[in-house]
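Narrative summary of target 7.
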Amino acid sequence: MIHTLLFDLGNVLIPFELTRGYRAFETSTGLPAQLVAERLTSTDLYQRYEAGLVSTPEFHKSISEVLQVEIPMEELRSAWNAIFFPDPTVNPELLIKLKENYRLVLLSNTNELHFEWLRERYDFLQLFDAFTLSYEVGAMKPERLIFEDALSKARCAPEECFYTDDILKYVETARTLGIHAQQFTGEDRLREHLTAAGVRY
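Modeled conformation, tokenized:
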């Protein structure tokens, strides 16, 4: 029997697209979006920030160095979070119904600037009982440590957890831990997976 539902964040609950961010940086820095993309992807700064190896002030300083343009913190915050679309992927009403019978845990590779911004704008994130965030845990999916942190917050056995993620590799890792995991491909398919797992909503 399922007792806890684990959800990924990006492109499961809230859709995003990196090119939106590159275009936003183009507006704030004057650099072509393609050049912004090339400079940002030429380093591992993004991964290190999400893994909690770089603080937000350090990230601010480093991204200005990488782009070779001074960016005020508020402009960075705005451009960095421009990747997200305004409407969620999953109807929040589904989460409200699930909350009535299950513990909800968010399991995400993310960073401080993203998560603080999202919590300010998406009220349904308040429905979650606990958060396992890569930058806080110091580990990123598909590392085992981040899943173990989520399981500790699930407060039940792995086989009593249902997990959905849009990235198949992460789903497969969860399965090796005994978690009932399914790849997210849309809300309709998610509902089918939940029903098949015996989840009531």
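The chain has a mean pLDDT of 97.
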